[in-house]
Amino acid sequence: MAQRRLIKLALGLIFVMSSALAAESDLSCKVLLVKSQNLKASQEVKICTLREETYFISANCQDLSCRFMKELKGLKLSHSPDERPGMEICKNLKGTVEEVTVEKISYSVLRCVFAKDKSFISLNLLESWDGKTFKGPSTPIDL
Q1: Signal peptide position in this chain (predicted)?
Q2: Is the N or C terminus of the chain more exposed, i.e. has fewer CB atoms within 10 Å?
């Protein structure tokens, strides 16, 4: 009886760990040129994308343990119909919305930047947050 419970527990743990690893493997990190609309020059930044170039997070948050992620987990989500949801979430997290052009993307995207630890997240990815998971463009990343 106890042995069956241990086997079930072990299988459950293996499933959870493999699911987490599969989600993390969806993040692809690389150094890209990023040009902020506020700066004249581009700078090299390590960005982790989630299957699409417009869904990205800073490399220092790839393990999802950076400062704003901890605050995001406790944030009550409510959206004003007058504002893009990601902009409102960004403001609630005390971030700054910034328009950037990222190498490999032929148009500009918005990101939320956090000055304290220099972390950032695209508004597309931020808006896919449902309170515990980033839905992203397809497979979710659970926290």
Answers
A1: 1-22
A2: N
